[in-house]
């Protein structure tokens, strides 16, 4: 089984209804495909950007299919894979697609992510400087 963690920038800010629609669709497809994971959305007021941070896990072939769809999705851009690899057991087994719409305070103690959406964040992401992403995402999962 594989997993992948990525960040991306929304083409435009998502409102609550749009995020809800995205989740309903994602959960249906992920359940059918045996995919689990967590999607985090944050709107950065200072930069006027919506940003996604997501982890997906599942069977190799199915995860590759999902990743190909996500990579072509026109609702986001600047897609950067932070981490990917093999796992024996799921890290997010209870969630076909968990979701967190986070605020600044949710990230203030998270090294590398406190400025999610800023120019410095994107420079750091492109330089592969976000090794704590999976730990951050697992923290949201474990808090549930």
SSE topology string: EHEEHEEHHH
**What's the number of structural domains?**
1
User: What helical percentage do the residues reach?
Assistant: 25-40%
Q: Unreliable stretches, pLDDT < 50, 5 or more residues?
A: none
CATH class: Alpha Beta
Return the CATH topology: Alpha-Beta Plaits
Radius of gyration: 14 Å
Task: Write down the overall geometry.
Answer: globular
How much beta, percentage-wise?
A: 25-35%
Number of helices: 5
Instruction: Tell me the total number of β-strands.
Output: 5
Structural class: alpha+beta
Please state the average pLDDT score: 89
The CATH architecture can be named as: 2-Layer Sandwich
Largest sheet entry: 5 strands, mixed
Strand arrangement, major sheet: 4-1-3-2-5
General description of the model:
By secondary structure, the chain is α+β, with helices and mostly antiparallel strands. It has one domain: Alpha-Beta Plaits (2-Layer Sandwich), CATH 3.30.70. It has a five-stranded mixed sheet with strand order 4-1-3-2-5, with helices on both faces. 30% of the residues are buried. The mean pLDDT is 89. It is built from five helices and five strands, in the order βαββαββααα.
What's this, in brief?
The chain has helices at 16-33, 60-72, 104-107, 119-126, 133-142, and strands at residues 2-10, 36-44, 49-58, 76-86, 98-102.
Looking at this protein, list some descriptive labels.
Alpha-Beta Plaits, 144 residues, alpha+beta, five-stranded mixed β-sheet
